[in-house]
Batch of 2 targets.
Target 1
Amino acid sequence: MAPIVEIAHVTKSYHRGNRAIPVLMDITLNIDEGEFLALMGPSGSGKSTLLNLIAALDRVDSGTITVGGVDITVLSESELAAWRAVNVGFIFQFYNLIPVLTAFENVELPLLLTNLSRGERHQHVELALQVVNLTGRMDHYPAQLSGGEQQRVAIARAIVTDPTVLVADEPTGDLDRVSAEEILELMDRLNTESHKTIIMVTHDPRAAKKAHTIRHLEKGFLNNVLSQAPL
Amino acid sequence: MYFLKLLFRNAFRHKLRTSLTILSITIAILAFGLLRTVISAWYAGAEATSANRLITRNAVSLVFPLPLSYKDKIRQIEGVKEVSYGNWFGGIYIDEKNFFANYAVESKTALELYPEYILPPDQREAFLRDRKAFFAGRKLVERFHWRMGDIITLKGTIFPGNWEFVLRGIYRGRDQNTDESILYFHWDYLNETLKKTAPRRADQVGFYIIGVTDPNRAAEVAVAIDKTFKNSLAETLTETEKAFVLSFISMSDAIIVVIQLVSFVVIIIIIAVAANTMSMTARERIGEYAIFKTLGYRGWRIAGMITGESLLITMIGCFLGIVFTSPAAKVFNKFVGTYFPLFRVESKTIYMDVAASVLVGLCAAIVPTWRAAKIRIADGLRRIG
């Protein structure tokens, strides 16, 4: 299968005062279409930074990242914003829902940037909420939902635009075991049934087990050891 | 619609904070509106003047009179349609605190020159027939609960003695800005009395009111009048009625400037209050703005959300401020109505309220918008959790 994400010789540093702190060093990685990849590693290893670079939330110092044939390292801020809206679905550890919007409105949020009519938007939102099995709670505000339900709304928001890749940063990090299992099942379903490419950062070996491939990052280097999660 | 809903919900996320900010803006707009109304009231007399009228007074000072004999000479000048004359009487009704403007005027010509005073024909006839008659504005009559035929006494300050008058007419203003709180009586009554009590002061007038045939020629006529009396014992100064009124207003220029400054200071203070609220709001929501950016929202959309919320809060405050300005002005008028007969909230003041509120809303959003638009997504997301 052709790689949908191609990362070539990427480096990234953060600056504290005049001091540059290297976070990623010469990372090269290909992710195939339909793959479910888990990025693991200790805190500070650079896995979230790598995820942010793939999702175009941050910029590389050097190297290139191509997603779906588009070199995102050369795009302007405004081009990146437009690109993200179409190509990337985000799932965060703390759900990151807008508290003053209902579940329905939160899921609708990315669609407001499209040319869809109100009716079409509503169809898409209802479908996404059906996928995460939350149609009965679409009028609830985030504060009225459990952690697992909030994360399911976040997943619905991530998939509503049918993006090229789904990126998940510790999606089960703030959930109890049962809810975490439900979220992982859901992500697995999205991967197997809808063939979504998923890139997940996690500390949790149980979460990583759901992925097809596990890559380890350590001190900014990507381990060459490729673990194959048991399917 | 979606974003309007979002703006409303965001604006009232911290109900107490938003309510207090709205209250501050309401009070500020109220204060701004009242101060602007005071300034408008100050200039109301000038606004009510007619371009068809000129005022001629003694060139040295208004306190010096002009001979009555000038009347016929003025009437002969080309461009003059009608000439009336009068004196500021300065009478006190019962007590000094009951101040109102009162004039002795040559009645028939004065009524012709002031068509904005609507006097019913029967009252006009009654007034013209009775030597001791006076007519007064509706507001003045209501203020002292006078009735037709009532005899009132004014204590003269410039013309000593107790002067009795009979109410024969009540005028209404033709225009909104016509002053309805002035008393007029016959100049002949004043002059005849002076002939007996102070003959040296008789046959002299305080000012001439001149009606011109063409307002475009007013300046030319004014020059001609002053030229006629050049090198006489009482040289004249002729100006448009508006310039005449403005010359009085200019005496209190410093007070008006102070009021104007205070009204702008009120706006600056409220910009600071609103900016503080919006800064706190934006700081708390940096993480949310990062989420919006993550989803593909560009800086200008986030700027629109912050600016929209800021404008929403200020416009609610503005609306309430405007709603309360008129009732507050009425209360205010009860205390200062003596000095400001035309104390009314003008539509110009409302427009200024709205403009000031928009300014406050925009200024308050500048810094938070800049911060939110500039925040890096990764940094913003780190603030969540």
Target 2
Amino acid sequence: MINKNERTKKERIKKRKELANTSSLLVIALPGIIYLLINNYLPMFGVFLAFKDYNYIDGVFKSPWNGLKNFEYLFKQDAFMIIRNTLLYNLTFIVLGTIVAISLAILMHELGSSKRVKFFQSSLLLPNLFSWVVVGFIGFAFLNSDTGFINNTVIELFGLEKVAWYSEAKYWPVILTLVYLWKMMGFHSIIYMASIAGIDQGIYEAAQIDGASKWVQIKSITLPMLKPTIVILSLMAVGRIFYSDFGLFYQVPMNSGAIFETTQTIDTYVYRGLMELNDVGMSAAAGLYQSLVGFIVVITANAIVRKVNNENALF
Amino acid sequence: MVKKIVLMTVILSMMMSIVGCGGGASTGNNTNDSSTNSETDNKDSSNKGESYETVVYSYATFNNIPSNDALSSVEEEINKITRERIGVEVELMPINITEYGQKVSLALQGGEQIDIFESLGDFNTSVSAKMAYDITELVDQYAVETKELIGEEILAAVTKEGSLYGIPTYKPYALTPMVIYKQEIADELNLDMSQVKSIEDLTDVLRTVKDAYPDMTPLVPVSPGDSGIYRTVEEIDFLSDDYLSPKGVLQGDSLTVVDFYALPEFMEKAGLARQWYQENLILQDAATTTSTAQELMASNNSFCYIASYSYPEEDTAASLSSQMGTKVGAKRIGEAYLDTSSISALTWMVSSMSDVPEAAVKFLNLTFTDPDVVNLLIYGIEGRDYVLDENGQALYPEGEDATTVPYTAQISVGTLGNFFIMHPSQGTNEESLAWEQEQNQIAKKSPAMGFTFDSSAVKTEYTAVSNVINQYLAVISTGSVDPVTAVPDFIEKLDSAGMNAIIAEKQGQLDQWLENKE
């Protein structure tokens, strides 16, 4: 009896100690957690709106049920095209984004901590601070077929025919990927730089003594050490694979109909389709559909990661 | 383990706050703004001691949103009239035109008080989403003058299944397609614009301009992706669709619903646009440019655009000249045609959740019958926000303009209440008012006048079809693609998106309506 009591007491003390250790971290995270609760968990209770034929008199609770009718429009006609676009763009962004962000982070890290690094960092981060509307117009200044920079300099230089960029669908996968990388890479690379900075310098020193070249150091030390961060970030990106960055896909192509074939994603499709109808239930259905698929994908991806290497799994 | 979770949460919440700022900010902030606004306003009115029912009047403004002080001074002036005449106090809620629809529907969903709001082309959805109060009886009781003024025939356009859901703004309804051109260039090249009677006549004019000024693109779009030419397909009843995105329509006296894009006229106009595009007569970027006609006209390399206006040529030209800072002329290239949506596009509705519907209807009545109320709403306070010249026409006080006076909603003129009882703005021709009122009576009217379409049965098809239209209409209307291949593609895609279901549903409802009418 006494023994058992003592053990629980000990456990309790241990737990309290652990809490004391982490409490400061918890306090730091508190605003974020509260934000998360209010912004991401509270609205969840409205999820049933996706199954309702919403009207203003009956309100949220009393509007009649509608079965799966709100979801139908997501699977009409262009469903294949928009799902393909959303998935392929996101996959490209995850793969290319990670590669570019890590390369940038390593390059930056190798430069040390001089003033020019600070300058490079800031200028890489700058595009991330622009709103998509501004980015859209910067793109327009480049691609405009009459007065655009590309048509008037680059194309002319090579003596090629002017291109009507905003009506040729085939160029847009490349354009959108470039714009995305340009805007987001500075921010992503910062996360990796922080991880690299956390790697024990002693390991590099030991490797240098053993005669490892820079390339070998990167390949055999930096990359393996970054693996957990890469996995976590990729898994989180995978969870949002059914969402697309609305600003990127709506503002940058300037809402040009001729290039929908390669620029229409689930978010823009829903927005354009519901502009006129303004239907609450149908918008809720789109949101639910996206998060449900995202949830399934992220659970599957995590399960696979756990199978391969338990340490790296998210949960 | 705990450490791992905490770390994860920190990263997650960091990411979230960044993502959140990008995406949700626009809607979130807006609701905050308006709620704080109304809170302070509520406080103001509760301090006044006496208790009157308060009506919140929400209107779209094209001008800057006035400061709270300026707003409450105008409110106070209006309240002086309303307290005495109808025993009601008013709270004004001007919302910027670009976010009006979104803000109103968010506010109503959130249970915020808005008693009176306007439709901006979405009367139909407002009614089918039950946002609008059935005011049939209230109007008979509290707004008899307005009902007489506007007349049964026009009110029929905002009546659904015997219930009246709103009062359309009283203004010139009949929109006429016109070409707006720079007078200076027309004079210089001796162009006889009076001979331009249809859109086909315009081609030669554009060519002449192009020959004289090779660097110029004579025709610019009126708004992004809208060259204006499909407006000149005559006698079309859009049957409650947005006229910028027509679907099933009626043509002329026929009572058979047809696909707008399958009409031979549409193909014809598309061919004309293509010809213009190939001859470089229309802006090559017309499908994607985000500049409006006004901005494009202000630059030196354009000559004209096509749009629909409801005022006589002379007045349209005068008012546009002052807005654009260059003298323009206007020439009609089609006939006015009235259908249900041209009337219901701007309709004042009482919110279905209003606690004070009677008071709301009483105030609505004043906006149609009391010149002082309308003038306060549009021009603000006399002497401070505007002055009257010797002809009784309103203009800004000396040294002031739209951006410096404390309150003005001048560009919203013709969107609220009764247009014909306000002070005319400077430069208006008094005779035109009579002409406009007459036009409302004599313009050719659709045989389905008064029919409104309820799209709720074909919502799925509507979204799919809207997306297809978004994809094709702009590029076809600006000539950026060859209609010979693009139009058949377009029609085929519309069909597979469910256009036929929409047409069938429309026809069904129309037949039903005709039957009930007899």
